[in-house]
User: Fold this.
Amino acid sequence: MIIRVFDDNNSLAGAAASQAAAAIRTAIALRGRARIVAATGASQFAFLEELTAVPSVDWKRVELFHLDEYIGLPMNQPASFCKYLQERLIGKTGITNCHLMKGDANPAEVIQLTTEAILQSPIDVAFVGIGENGHLAFNDPPADFQTEDPYIIVSLDEACRRQQVAEGWFRTIEDVPRQAITMSIQQILRSRTILCIVPETRKAEAVRRCFTGEIGPLAPASALRLHAQAFVMLDSESSRLLDRS
Assistant:
């Protein structure tokens, strides 16, 4: 794992977008296509804005998966991650090869279809963030570090659900679904390259715990430390609790 720290979210987003675009172009040059995973959430706004503005990316050769989706949430709801990706990535780039997990479909069928697709060949680059509770995708603590299943059903903890309310996706915690489909820790680690984009001071404690404490299920994003090509990209606020001497 490699940590990079930037002055602010804008410079972080620009650097992350440049590295992401380079990884996509390299995969297309080597294999004729790029298979990517995209994260959602407020922390990814600036990054996706920069990425979709990068020139000379052949998005028609990009195959897209996403990390997670709420169970029971229709695609037309503001908090739907399918809707998020349609508006902030797919619609802006013209990606046509997408594997979106419909929240209001049968979860077992969604998992089966997405699993079959993602196991066809490795993911070239995964874009992820981390939660205020240290979650990676929707793998809340204590996360399952052992399952080899690419996608699993999880129950969301209270800290995770409160974060969704604080970010404005839901009006009250009662409105936040209690379960989700998420990409597993082991499946994320199978990606050739991982870009973990983590701005904002509210993530500082999770950054400290995951990237300086013990590696294990209580700090799910600590799993990134096991990956040689995981790049954790922070700004001055999210990195403020790290010892940078």
In short: The beta strands are 2-6, 34-38, 62-66, 68-70, 97-99, 125-128, 151-155, 179-183, 193-198, 230-235. The chain has a mean pLDDT of 96. The two ends are 18 Å apart (CA to CA).
